[in-house]
Amino acid sequence: MNWNSYSKSFQSYLKIERGLSKNTIDNYTFDLERLCTFLNDNAIAISPEKINEETIQMFIYSVSKEVNARSQARIISGLKCFFSYLIFEDYRTDNPMELIEAPKIGRKLPDTLSTDDIDNLIAAIDLSSPEGERNKAILETLYSCGLRVSELVTLKISDLFFDEGFIKITGKGNKQRFVPVATTTQKYIELYRNSIRNHLSISKGFEDTLFLNRRGKQLTRAMIFTIIKTLAVKINLQKNISPHTLRHSFATHLLENGADLRSIQLMLGHESITTTEIYVHLDRKHLTQIINKFHPRKA
Question: Are 189 and 141 spatial neighbours (Cβ–Cβ below 8 Å)?
Answer without folding.
Answer: yes
